[in-house]
Design a protein that fits this description.
Helices cover about 55% and strands about 10% of the residues. By secondary structure, the chain is an alpha/beta fold. It has a 5-stranded parallel beta sheet, sandwiched between helices. A 5-stranded mixed beta sheet has the order 7-8-6-9-10, with helices on both faces. β3, α3 and β4 form a beta-alpha-beta unit. The longest helix has 23 residues, at about 115-135.
């Protein structure tokens, strides 16, 4: 048994939940040591000084000390521990509470293997980044505590990420600058960032500079604004300045006019009108992203405002609170039964008509609604695959990755197509489909698609867009491509991107975040997760191995 690098401690007052987490994955294969689970939050706090866990998975609802109370204690007393919350039901207030309390992510019961692996990969990435950060020369990184260092995106984003996950490195040079002791914050989120990059021939540095320049022109010099691009998520830009609520609202409206929907795709602007100091930028960012998930799940511009802590603030923000589209309690049993009995039409009807999910992009669903609803049904389908047709596990995991990507892009048609492909695969395994790709015209089209992806891998390629371009049903196109090349369209695209990323890493001067963007990923954390899954190690580890 190989030595473990990190320790994981799970806490839940229900025995079956603790044992489910224990047996869900082979922990040792991930270089993780799974400690004996705790029964409640108080036991967790008692055991930390002796067992020193690196990651804690905690249930929200526990006696004596609730999960949220535990997260708050851990954030204050053990900020270096990465925390993940688990709950048996959907609740936006609790989701927000998790992020505000320093939690890395939020999982719904029953927790599936794929969801657990994803969040653990994310946690490992955070821990590894911290280790690397500790090795850096603090004095050179801070650059003699001058405010100018914060104008550099990479440095500012490092502070943002460190604060986000509980890192408490001293930042005394920020608080010492009285000019920035009372600032407000605004975040601009682009959902078509890959297409926008095409305007700049995929030069991400030029694109970032151009957008920041235009934001600076709109913001003006009043209020000493700081504008930076989150280097871990190229689609996010933050503006920090002294301003009142009216100024922020006007600025938000001008930003949406500056980046019209027809040319730039949907844009979200999130306001944090409460004043704070730059020391609190990590907390502010958590509140921004927890508000961001309440935006409507559609391809439209949107302005959101972080709710204030007081009741009056919450009432003021009612216009962005969605009604909630939780899957019915009986859906898990019913869906599993339909899958088991092969009732394809009834299965699709249950999934797409429940809560009117087929029209989730009509403005009545929030992003969080869609994420939780889709997470519930894909979790059920994944459990069915594991129990009834495990030979489809890899294909199901790929489809779920695809579904997750399209959700982040607010792309409902591609999300529906991916769900349908996942469903179709459950009934098509073992059927003879050899005649599908016999037509010479179909073969030529598939070959054209193959060549197109080989040379345009960095573009925002979606299955539905390809199907529409070549006048095919998305599910049919996916099937015949797999028959000809032995891998799905998305698997092929991902492989090409990872191979290209590995080649670019030979250039030690290229930042990993830049490489991520150059191969088609605007979210570095997502890219890192995919790279690790395909290459067996993180991008940073791969580059270090090349250097050695």
């Amino acid at each position: 048994m190989k030595s473990m690098k990190y320790k994981v401690l799970a806490a839940d007052d229900e025995f079956w939940s603790r044992e489910n987490i224990r047996s869900l994955i082979p922990w040792e294969e991930y270089s993780l040591e799974f400690l004996e689970p705790a029964c409640d939050g108080e036991e967790v706090l008692e055991r930390i000084p002796e067992e020193h866990p690196d990651i804690i998975l905690t249930d929200i609802n526990m006696p004596f000390l609730s999960g949220l109370e535990l997260l708050q204690r851990l954030q204050k007393e053990y900020p270096d521990i990465v925390t993940v919350a688990i709950s048996g039901y959907d609740d936006f207030d609790k989701v927000k509470g998790v992020f505000v309390s320093g939690g890395l992510d939020y999982l719904l019961k029953p927790v599936g293997k794929e969801e657990l692996v994803k969040v653990l990969t994310k946690a490992l990435g955070v821990l590894e980044e911290r280790e690397n950060a500790k090795k850096q020369d603090e004095t050179s990184r801070i650059q003699e505590h001058k405010l100018s260092s914060f104008l550099e995106d990479s440095e500012y984003s490092a502070l943002l990420s460190g604060k986000l996950y509980g890192q408490s490195a001293s930042q005394t040079y920020v608080s010492s600058t009285n000019t920035f002791s009372e600032v407000t914050t605004l975040m601009v989120k682009f959902y078509n960032i890959t297409e926008i990059a095409e305007q700049f021939e995929h030069d991400n540095l030029l694109m970032s500079w151009n957008i920041k320049y235009r934001l600076r022109e709109l913001t003006g010099s009043a209020g000493n604004p700081i504008i930076f691009n989150n280097s871990n998520k190229m689609s996010e830009f933050l503006i920090v300045k002294t301003a009142d609520a009216r100024e922020l609202r006007t600025l938000s409206e001008n930003i949406l006019k500056e980046f019209p929907l027809e040319e730039y795709g949907p844009v979200s602007v999130v306001l944090h009108e409460q004043t704070s100091s730059l020391d609190d930028i990590g907390t502010v960012y958590r509140e921004l992203i927890s508000t961001l998930v309440t935006r409507p799940f559609n391809r439209s511009h949107c302005i959101l405002s972080c709710p204030e802590e007081k009741n009056s603030g919450l009432q003021k923000n009612e216009d962005i609170q969605m009604s909630g589209k939780a899957a019915p309690a009986h859906m898990e049993t019913e869906l599993y039964h339909l899958l088991s009995t092969g009732q394809k039409a009834e299965t699709e009807k249950l999934i797409f008509k429940t809560c009117n999910f087929r029209h989730c992009d009509d403005g009545t669903w929030s992003y969080l609604d869609v994420k939780q609803y889709v997470g519930r049904i894909t979790g059920i389908m994944y459990r069915y695959v594991q129990e009834k047709c495990p030979e489809l596990t890899a294909q199901a995991e790929e489809a779920m990755d695809n579904i997750d990507y399209y959700m982040k892009c607010l792309n409902a048609p591609s999300l529906f197509a991916s769900l349908k492909i996942l469903l179709d695969s459950l009934w098509e395994s073992g059927e003879d489909r050899s005649s599908d790709s016999n037509s010479s015209s179909i073969v030529q089209q598939v070959e054209q698609i193959h060549r197109y992806m080989e040379r345009s891998y960095h573009e925002n390629i979606t299955l539905t867009a390809l199907a529409e371009q070549y006048h095919m049903d998305a599910s049919y196109l996916s099937r015949i491509f797999s028959q000809k090349y032995g891998e799905t369209i998305i698997a092929f695209l991902t492989r090409i991107r990872m191979e290209k990323a590995a080649e670019l890493m030979k250039d030690q001067d290229k930042k990993l975040e830049t490489i991520s963007f150059l191969v088609g990923y605007d979210d570095y954390n997502y890219f890192s997760r995919v790279f690790r899954k395909k290459m067996g190690c993180s991008p940073r580890e791969y580059r270090n191995n090349l250097a050695q």
